[in-house]
Amino acid sequence: MDLMTPAPVASVTTAPLKVAVILASNREGRFAPVIADWFLSRTADHPDIETDLVDLADLDLPYALSHRPGPEASAQLAEISPRLAAADAFVVVTPEYNHSFPAPLKNLIDWHHAEWQAKPVAFVSYGGVSGGLRAVEHLRQVFAELHAVSIRDTVSFHNAGALFDDDRRHRDPAAVDAAAKTLLDQLVWWGQALREAKAVRPYGD
User: Fold this and answer.
1) In angstroms, rounded to a whole number, what is the distance separating the alpha carbons of residues 163 and 130?
2) What are the C-alpha distances in Å from 70 to residues 59, 62, 75?
3) How many CA atoms lie within 13 A of 76 on its CB side?
4) Going by C-beta distance under 8 Å and a sequence separation of 6 or more, which residues neighbour residue 100?
5) In the beta sheet, which residues pair with residue 19?
6) SS3 of residue 120 by DSSP
7) pTM reported for the whole predicted model
8) E strands along the chain, which residues?
9) Strands 17-23, 49-55: parallel, antiparallel or unpaired by DSSP?
10) What is the pLDDT of residues 62-106, one digit of tens each?
11) Closest to 199 (Cα-Cα) out of 76, 15, 27, 28
12) Is 10 exposed, middle or buried (0-12, 13-18, 19+ CB in 10 A)?
């Protein structure tokens, strides 16, 4: 190649990031849909994001992992695995159960591997005094093992039940709206950067 000839530059896609928003709780009477609705309302008009809500209450993956899942598990995986694989990034909406995150979320994570790799993961947590942050800290370790990149800034709702009115509107949204903007800005940066990097060189090569 002529030294004066510029090196080829990989094409950069301007398509919105495909973000899978994972609703981690399937508990009866859960508060999760309130938090998810709030978050999705903040992404609805974001030009760089396209969301897909993955609600664990709609899944029934077996807790016994298998390299050769039976027909029912295979049907469940055929529904969810392609959605995770197609995502450029993830947002996990999680409560805190007994100082950690819900078992159905760990089960979903453990049924998959390559689907998480070299993608950013952000966290929206809720709970009592801790606001679910202890669940988030455990999740950071799990996703690091799966070669995912966890986003530094989170959105957390402390004593979440008291923060929303009967119409599911946040009573004083300024601080959490600002936190959501920071989270989304970081998620978009990492999501675009990793997507472009993988277009040049697939992860693991």
Assistant:
1) 14
2) 15, 10, 9
3) 19
4) 134, 135, 138
5) 51, 89
6) strand
7) 0.92
8) 17-23, 49-55, 89-95, 120-127, 149-150, 155-158
9) parallel
10) 999 999 999 999 999 999 999 999 999 999 999 999 999 999 999
11) 15
12) exposed
